Amino acid sequence: MFIVSLLLGGMLLPLSAQQDVRAYGDTQKILAEARDALLGYAMANDRLPCPASSTSNGAEAFCTASSGACTETTTVQSHGRCAYSYDGYFPRATLGLLPVDSRGYLIDGWGSDPDNRVRYGLTASNTYAFSYSSGMKNTGITVLAPDLQVCSTGVGMSNAGDPLTAACASGMVLASDAVAVIYSLGKNAGSAGSGTEETHNPNPRSTTTADRAYVGAPQGSATDDQMIWLSKSTLFNRLVAAGRLP
Ligand SMILES: [Ca+2]
Ligand SMILES: [Ca+2]
Known about the structure:
The chain is an alpha+beta fold. It is built from 6 helices and 8 strands, in the order H-H-E-E-E-H-E-H-H-E-E-E-E-H.
């Protein structure tokens, strides 16, 4: 019965819809694998990688100085300050994942448009303690306060565009202490992104400056972005199990 209904469903769905279902599923899988890779990287290296920039060919990008104007470099910096904390790309070259585009970036299930590169944001809290070696251990598990927010809607968000104080509307918080977010701009990556929901997730057409708050609204007419995140508790659980914390 189950198989028959699956076959029937397959026949009834138009081909383009079947391709969309497949691309959505592939993207979910790619995002989940990226999160697993992040956890593995954190256990092996005692820190999380910085986001890649649009010119780093998928390698993590730091600022050369711990404050002031940012001069970008792919050389690992002991201060941990990332060049693009909130609006970078997943550092595929640093983690070695597939699928990859011709310039070294991880791509989602929707295609090879440059805008379909997997996006990644990392908390900058505790003076970049999450992105330099032993930063988390030296800061201490009770002091660490990752601050990325994932909202269930962009409506009513406060301080949007302010890097550190942007916040979800009351009662619209999916996560308030995420360490990292990993997301895809979805099928419309090459053409949209300025709607009320998607504009809060950094993308080429967004009018809102990148900040610590993202929108993981349900799929629909207002957004097709796909977002997952790494919570503080999941990261700490793995790091304690690996002997990296406390
Ligand atoms: Ca989108
Ligand atoms: Ca935002």
